[in-house]
Amino acid sequence: MTSSSTAFAKARAEGRAALVGYLPAGFPTVDGSIAAMRTMVEAGCDVIEIGLPYSDPVMDGPTIQTAAQQALDGGTRTADVLRVVEAVAATGVPTLVMTYWNPIERYGVERWASDFAAAGGAGMITPDITPDHGQEWIAAADAHDLDKVFLVAPSSTDERIAMTTAACRGFVYATAVMGVTGARESTSDLAGPLVARTRATTDLPIGVGLGVSTRAQAAELAGYADGVIVGSAFVRTLLDHPDDEAAGLAALRALTEDLAAGVRRA
Fold first, then answer.
1. pLDDT, average across residues 88-106
2. Which of 90, 92, 98, 103 could pair with 125 as two cysteines, CB 3.0-4.6 Å apart?
3. Assessment of whether the complete model's pTM goes beyond 0.90
4. Can 80 be counted among the known catalytic residues?
């Protein structure tokens, strides 16, 4: 088990930002998701963020919703997510799970933390709980030395940002777009100020997610953030090749290499 902070430190030592790649477990299949994430690692992702498919993904845009529903329709369950975690973590890249809270609460918070750590997971990103309402997860994560990645947003007050970053371990997730997830044609002018406000409260790395889908966008973001988080663009690449796994993986590799070059060009 390797903390995500290790990957950020390695990237910083190389004078670049880290590339964080997201895909849902079980999309397009459980084995297919493992192959896809391994491809992303080989092509330049420094951290892998595995989505736990959930039936009510209110914060996700249509691209990720479609992939998560496909995973659920294929029978993906929490035990399968842990199998994906174990396979991806075996590459040596820090492997986190991003999940809504309900599935973890249903599985059992302490049981999840124990099983997740045993699978080699580095930590968890929790978009719908905040530190002041996440004490049970914080305690379980601390007991198993897992990263706790909470979110800050442009609407967060300075006080909320300080409270949130104080509870984080690994890195801080700055979501610089108000609304649901999804690839966008341009980066947000809210990202830079949010990173600056967040950096004033913590020495932890700051990863930014705002719909990056191109090398130029990744390079722009890498100019001021410690990490560039990409999700919908990776998912869309696989959705565009529903009947040809080899072509989908080739396209995924090409996109990852392009984005990895972007974070190195800043």
1. 96
2. 98
3. yes
4. no
